[in-house]
Amino acid sequence: MVTILDRTRLAEGIEPKRVRHPEKQARPDTEMKRKPEWIRVRAPTSKGYQETRAIVKENNLVTVCEEAGCPNIGECWDKKHATFMIMGEICTRACAFCNVSTGKPNALDMLEPENVAKAVKQMGLMHVVITSVDRDDLEDGGAEHFEKVIWAIRAASPQTTIEILTPDFLRKPGALERVVAAKPDVFNHNLETVASNYLTVRPGARYFHSMRLLQRVKELDPTMFTKSGIMVGLGEKRNEVLQLMDDLRSADVDFMTIGQYLQPTRKHHEVVSFVTPEEFKSYEKIAYTKGFLMVASSPLTRSSHHAGDDFARLQANRARKVLAAAE
Known about the structure:
single chain, TIM Barrel, seven-stranded parallel beta sheet, two-stranded antiparallel ribbon, 12 helices, 11 strands, globular, disordered N terminus, metal-binding
């Protein structure tokens, strides 16, 4: 993260102002469109939200719920659901849609695996989602740290099922294999958008590398559930979304999520369109006809929203499919 020096602030003994997205400062401002009624949520104030926040702070943890400005934080934290973001709060990538800070990350916190496991146990989670920033600075992209977090949770809370939402491990040989060998229950890696948008929306990533990553998970462990998600409203065409669905099914991905992109600041990629609830429902129906076991498609859908309930349905849907195939 870049620090902008302000002589007045320094003279007054105030900590220098930190810029969350230094790579975006030179970009022209984009229009912030008014959100339609169906996308608005209330500010979180419940007792459950406050209790979850206290547990997160007590264990010095980072959540993607806060860092990415998730609109569902009030609902999820009230139910004691949280998505833990490991390996710090500073990302080495600079995606045009993302609100997570960009810059040079700090060293890994060796106590983090135990602290995450402690929080999972304190919160009594039956299902937990673990994600991370991109750590291109690490030789293994953070694969070993993912392993340690999974192992720590298994030891502290063996009844908890574990879903991981990983970076792409681009140019990190052997990293994916290590994470899959740690046996998470669900392996999630988000494509984020259609292939034609990658240069402008996700410039540090490669569409077909991400697709191949998901396919490789199934080759390594055919029993592992795989999952991927996209945002819409970034200028994609409908036929491109349908092609992406076909690509995911070719990679044997089980679960797809589709949600509305929301612009964090004027320096981020603009919202090209607000997709209607009816259009989301249409995407859901089409995705099911293509063979996904689970589809979550709505304006407020996010990768880890209702993850525990969705995992139970995912298991049930696979069981029904296996039974039907045997008859």
